[in-house]
Amino acid sequence: MTQDMEESADTFGDINLTLGMLNMEDNMSKEDIYSHLTSVIQNTDILDDAIVQRLIYYASKDMRDTNILRETRMLAGEVLVSLAAHDFNSVMYEVQSNFRILELPNEFIVLALAELATSYVSQSIPFMMMTLLTMQTMLRLAEEERMKGVFCIALEKFSKAIYKYVNHWRDFPYPRLDANRLSDKIFMLFRYIMEKWAPITSPVQTLAIVKAHGPTVSLLLHREDLCEYALDQVPWLLKQYKDKEIDFHVTQSLKQILTAVVLYDAALPKGLRKTIFINLLHQVCRVSEPPVKENEIEASSCFLILAHSNPADLMEFFDEQLRNNNETFRTGILTLLRSAINAEEPKLRDYITSIERTVKVVMGDLSIKVRNSTLLLIQTMCEKCYIEAREGWPLIDYIFSQFAMSNKNLEKPMKPNSHEDEKGEKSVRELSLEVLKTLDPLVIGMPQVLWPRILTFVVPAEYTGTLDYLFNIIRSLIMAEERKKNNAQESTALVISTGAGKNTSIVLWETMLLQLLKESLWKISDIAWTIQLSRDFNQQMNSYSNTSLEKKFLWKALGTTLASCQDTDFVSSQIKEFLIAPNQLGDQRQGITSILGYCAENHLDTVLKVLKTFQDREKFFMNRCKGIFSGKKSLTKTDVMVIYGAVALHAPKGQLLTRLDQDIVSQVLFLYGQCSQVLGMSVMNKDMDLQMSFTRSITEIGIAVQDAADQGFKFSYKEVLLGYMLDFIRDEPLDSLASPVRWKALIAIRYLSKLKPQLSLNDHLNILEETIRRLLPLPPLEKLKDEGETDKDKEHIHFLYERSMDALGRLLRTMMWDNVKAEDCQEMFNLLRMWLVSHKDWERERAFQITAQVLTNDVEAPEHFKIGSLLGLLAPHSCDTLPTIRQAAASSTIGLFCIKGIHPEVERLQDLQEGLQCDDVQVQIKISSKIAKIVSKLIPNEEILMFLEETLDGLETLNPTCTKACGIWMVAALKEQGAALEEQLLEILNMIYYHMPVLRQKEESFRFMLEAISQIASFHMDAVVANLLQKPLPFDRDTKTLWKALAENTASSGKLLRALTDKLENELEDDVAGLEAISVACAMYEVVSAGTPVTSLYPEVFTLLLKLVSCTLGQKMPTSTFSRRRRVMPQGERQQTADPCRLSITTLKCVQAQAKKEGLAKESDEGDNLWTLLSSPSTHHVGVCALARSMALWQHGVILDIMEQLFASLTSSLENYRITGTAFFSELMKEPILWKHGNLREVLILMDQSAWDSNAILRQMAIRGLGNTTSGAPHKVKKHKQIILESIIRGLYHLARTEVVCESLKALKKILELLTDRDVSFYFKEIVLQTRTFFEDEQDDVRLTAIFLFENLASLTGRRWKIFFAEEIKKSMISFLLHLWDPNPKIGTACRDVLIICIPFLGLQELYGVLDHLLDGQDLPRARDFYRQLCVKLAKRNQEILWILHTHSFTFFSSNWEMIRSAAVKLTDAIVLNLTNQYVQLLDKEQLTTRLQALRQDPCISVQRAAEAALQTLLRRCREISILL
Fold it and tell me: Which among 414, 436, 408, 410 is positioned nearest to 424, based on CA atoms?
């Protein structure tokens, strides 16, 4: 950092020093200074603002100073433009300040603006309108040529900048500007220049206009309204082609215009187009003098643009010009065509035929230059695939003809060659060879052009010099043909050749040479010459070894020659000679077979006749061995069998079928039968040579019949021959592979199976099953190879193994796809199933390799062929243990789609397939997953079910990696096609349920199955939910697992809960809960217990479940509805399970627990007892109230939604639901925030109505709600006090249910606290009277509430009811005094409080002292002492009250509470003690005595003692007044 700071300081110091030098008047040194400054500024990232401003000042001043040298002013302008990189706005401001309207500017100011527009397009565009407007006022002021040139330069630069903005405005960092306004100004400037300056300009001025012309016209072309004007200016430009110095710039401008024409898709008028073609051609093909290279390149580029935009017109123009016999034009046009083809212009490909025809126009031209140009063009056309079969061959022929012509002209010239002519001819010859050398015969279209006509150049002598390159071309074509045939159905000739596949190119080469020989002999048609040639071939036999390729070719050549010979007698004699003395041929079997086979092509009758004569004349030894007569070798029966096969193969197809059964097949069977007899008895012969020869002969016969292509021919020996071949295969051992019999027999069966009559399906199945059963169970290849003693033996076994498997695959492929019925193909494929899932790796490997062979290489399946099941079977093995299995499985998977005409991304799939070679299991799984994603979307919808069934089977049976692949494929298919499976959904789900018991034992398989269910549900949630809900209750383990799996899928868990919610809502629509509703609740429990968030649906779920609890309250579910699997459970557990209300509550509990986690609810004050309360009909309302209290008030939005959902419960026809709703709302009525935002006013009205309901619990809850309204909306209570009071007071008369009474008392207490004496005056008396009736209620809560209410009433007496209330106090005072010792301490405290309040009404303030003592004490005083003190005070103050207390005390003697009885007796004792004599005389002493006597027998000792004491007090007072008892 320090170093950077030092460098920056040095730079600033350097610039400051330079600025000081600029301030000097020495103009001579300024040129060097500005040059130095330009370099410094351009290489410095940051410049100080002050320095920049000073530099702008000096540079601008010197740039405008006419006294300074022009070069220095130019350098000053460069510095000024460079400074724009550091402060563009300041530079633009400086330049614009010297660029004023109607004032001719300094030329360097204009140039600076032009350079700024070029170098800083983005920053310059916002200033462009101002600049153009100003410049428009200046043009008419310009008179000097230099100034006009400067304005033309500015127009060029401005047009380029605006052109860039028009085409790339999205890349600019500010909102889009109106480019049309800018182009309007450019148009005005350009029109002025073209009208005023262009007609009368000097060459220098013309050059400036030409340079501006291209960019300006290009810009105007983007405007449809200006396009015509712009194109009208092009002829002026073309007229400027006069001078070399200006031509390049004309072409350059023309190129810019043509580019814009293509970009804006403008239409060039035909006349203008022709003029452009001609002018450009003259630039390329100058006759008088060679063109300037730069101009020629630009003109060629113009032609490339025209080839893109107007290829048809261009080709027409070229063709027209080529027909003018002008060497220069022809050479130029051919060169232009070559450039266009090299540029690979796509549109030009549509005119390949036109190009070929155009080239043919010049093929007769003898000019060396034209010939060379034509050859070069043909070379390019070949390289770029511009040769096609219909018109292309003459171009190839031209290459050879030019070579031959140049050779001829060099060797035998028509006239003496000059040195130049000789040099030219040599160049043509060398170029011809070069073209042949570089010719690639395999580019697209070339094989069709070259083959087979290229062979015509092999023999003629004039083409000898081309043979090296010619043979390279032919060799490439042959190798390509070989590859093609390896992939297609093989040639019949190749099948029967020993070691087919190794020498294929040689066989093809020999075939072509033999064809050439045949055609040559046919053209010559000279019998004598043909006979002599055959003798010459025969004489050469001894020159080669028996195993040499040359000798084998000689046999074929000899046979071909004999076939071409028209002298049948000679042919017959030659055949007889070979049959009698075959040893002269070397290998007699191969030799005589080849000769007679090829000879039969034209002489079938002769060959068969001679063979029959030979058989009849010769006597074979019965042992089939080669006999030795007179020291010479002879043919065996086995040899003759092979000959018959070769004859059939080569016989003319039109003659073969009539002779086949009688003269060929019957003879082969006869000979084989003879060879299989010992002493005249037929035996199973295991001579390998015999079996191989017989099989070869049968194969060749089958091929011959097939090639005859006679649909009406039925091969009568088909079944017999198939039987022989199957017997050969059956006889082969299953533990070794030493002979090729199996392989060859499979080939024979394949060809025989194709012949008529058609085999039945059972025959096909039997043949395939037998062949598969005899090959696939073989031991592993390595074990088979171990039987070989030498390496050669091992190699041979390997070879036989590969060929046998290949033959089996081809057989299966043939039999399967030759069948027109898709069902039959499926049946045949099923034969491989058991092997595809074999537990032995090598058996699976073979089965998959055969399967891949059957399904690949452009197979076309019959209509309605189903691939779903096969795909499910094969695809998961892309993760099998062996790489060969994985590769084959992938190939088969791709092939399945191809045979259905569905072509997936084959190249990408093949790239992925290569990756399956990797042994890393994770890599395999990843690749298999990618393949599954690509192809799953292509599985036919109607076959998805079969695919899924197969994958589910795989999940049960396959190895772990394949199992995982099964799951991946299954899930992938459901992801891609799940949306379209609605109609098959039920079957899919039932299929999955069927597999669940087994899959549960395999953890990973089970996980995939659950994922599949989740995937289906993501598309068809409602259908899946409906299906699962049909499961019997209670849900078994599998059903619960499925629900949890659906819930654990975060992507669809919300949708699942929504579906269940909607389902439950529908089921409860009539306020009746059936089995379906219970099932939904059980499902909801599993879903929510899995952690599914409930926030979004909580109000609906909560209210629905609460409704369900209400609907099921007290119900029992029929046991028949439950799953039979659960009947083994203990009776008690079953009964517990069968409670629908319990199930509903369990779900509600689960939902509440989740709601608490999400902050939607809080812990209930009842704890877990809440759910017990809810489940009992007698306490349900209590539980609902507790549930309501557990609502989280801070989530008032949620509660408001719940209220809205639950509002309907208040008017439900179901009584239980009304109770539930009323209870819930009764608790919410006390929350002010809910009154503020909710609809509780309507609830209040319904509550008031319910307070009169006949159902006691409903009345109780309604009254509670009315009472709680005092907390939530006291203003509503005051407003509706009359209605509310009447409803609550009525509850006091519901004596049968103390709960209602108690609730009414509590509600009254709350309401009265809000009201004044005037508000309750009308109801005061009734309330007081009713309240007094509950002082002695058995329920503590009722007594306590009544006492509290009475205390509140004291404050509401007013003047009107004060006396009445005092009287009621007197009547109630006995209760208050006695209940001071109530069993419930709270009641005692309440009595003390009410006494304190009521004493003033009686004017007994003296009692405060006694009561204060009662309140102040830590413990209650003794009742006797308290009552005596109280009575003493009362006796002094008011004897009447004592008497009233006495008269009301009798009723308490029979109280249920012993403490009250005891207190009543003690109070009576105190009263009697303090009564005056007058009141004592009034006592009903008899009744009092009797009652006290009875209490002496009370179970409670305290009562007994109090009664005894009271009795003594009574006796004492009686004595005092001398009253005898």
Answer: 410
